[in-house]
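=== RUN LOG ===
request id: a7f3
mode: sequence -> structure
chains: 1
length: 254
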Amino acid sequence: MSGGTSGDHDPAKHVILYVRAGWDGKGYGACPFCQRFYMVLDLKAKRSALTYDIITVNPAHPTDDFRKFANRLPVLKHMNEVIMDTEEIQNYLDQMFPAPDLRYTNMNAHTACLDIFSKFSFFIKNVSHTPDLLLKELCYLDSFLAGSANKFTCGDHLTYLDCNVLPKLQHIRVASEAFQDFQIPAELSALWRYLGNAYKEDTFRKTCPSDQEIVHHWSEKKETAPLPERKHRLYTLEATPRFSLELPKYVNRK
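=== RESULT ===
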């Protein structure tokens, strides 16, 4: 998968992002941390001379070449630089490719997003036997978003915060319903407005994994509750990939 301009690449302006492969060991997988930086690279490539390639890696069977320079995902490679720490990847991209500026200063927005994914993980892995803690965090984010007319968390343009939280919200939407029959409540209208705005963004649509890959991602974790038998056919990996990139029918779209 490639991004930016086509044709020959200037090595100084070209980066490679290694991401987790999907169920077949080759296609694009559903790691939310990988999607975070896929989004970042795509946004920067649209407004600068940056070009990029996305290379999938099967964590169970990485190539010898990959093992020579990395042992986890995602990984950013730029000429001779190899970066694996997520915060270091972000700082490096800011230093080498500052435009567009995706940084943010709204700490209230940061705090509103801070604990959602951990509470989701507790719920999906049955550490929490009810969705109450997750719902509390979703309501907190909804309340923050309701206090602004902005399209996204910190304004009308995607920032690093959105690239971080939106992939996680997509996992919450898809996996919670698949494994736990939990749907993000329609009453959280500001949160759904936020997701609806994301679904209109080419960068999010381009980088979003299929519903089947998201379900597979969590099925691979031994702590996750088994997928109900009645849903196996719905999320079969051999079927045509399905993407939840529209607001569900139960949400008021006015």
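=== NOTES ===
Residues 160-180 form the longest helix (21 residues).
The two ends are 36 Å apart (CA to CA).
=== END ===
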